[in-house]
Amino acid sequence: MQGEWNCLQALILKDFLYAYYIHCLAHRQQLALVTVSYEIVPIHHFFTKRTSVVNIVGASCKRNDELKLAQAADIEYMISIDELEIGRKFNQIGTLRRPGDTQWSSHFRSVSNLIKMFSATYSVLLNIIEDGDADAAYEVMTTFEFVFILHLMKEIMAITDILCQALQSKSQDVLHAMHLVSSTKALIQKFRDDRQGQALRQEDNFTVAEHYRVNLFYAVIDYQLQELSGRFNEHAVQLLILSSTLDPRKCRESFRIGDVCQLVDKFYLADFTDVDKMNLKIQLDHYEYNVVQHPKFKSLSTIFDLSQWLVSTRKATILPLVYRIIVLVLTLPVSTTTTE
Fold this sequence. Notes:
The protein has helices spanning 8-15, 25-39, 41-57, 61-80, 104-116, 118-127, 132-141, 144-167, 174-200, 208-231, 234-243, 248-253, 257-267, 274-292, 303-312, 315-318, 320-330. By secondary structure, it is mostly helical.
């Protein structure tokens, strides 16, 4: 689809040099997260081992029952030492969740569940230790590396999960999603910097601790930041943000004529002459009063609705340059992957 030489994107660009290709935003983030899990070998092994633990503990009704009993015992003990809050909907008994291959948020929930039920899972594996597979899973689960990566991935996934949910929403707000990309990268960087500051205050040579800090902690975060920056590059992000200016929902809050002109100057140079650009500014002034402030405009929810309404009311013929940029933006559909 997006191959540079022989795929669909390349074929279209042969005839339309100024066509823009925007990959499904939700899938972009999925790819960024998956890349990390494959590029760093210990992380790849962790996900494989995590799946094995979940499958072994949930292999039968008997083991699920044992897991629930172990959870109940853990909850009872934690309540007795005032470590858990008591109340309705608190301390619910659950099961280990199996993640979906294309649902990255499900990996976050699976990792969070395993942390929450770690002690109960440990107890079940200990009880069925005579099973060869259970023995191997028990050995894996009790290693420092497994526990370290379990908590590391939970922290990173917690930061990225809001962006995952926003990109998978059926009623996606592109502008908010793009801002979430920026805040996600900033928070991941902050997570790294905070831990780096703690490391600099410690006196140690290249020890086991340094291995986990450099080869795992920093490596995972740096790969994550690199992938997010590469797949959500500034050029594509700016195009989407400026395009959202024409969204009727955004126009009702604040119609920014300067952003529309900037959109034309940066991304649609071949579609507007210098004279067109001057006339576009005048038409946008009229558009703000005659369209944005029209009572019927409030009922429009998408750019597609807007284009149809402009044609039906013949405003498209009165403001042809504004209509042209709206049509150009409509040729840049941003799809979402709904995985829930």
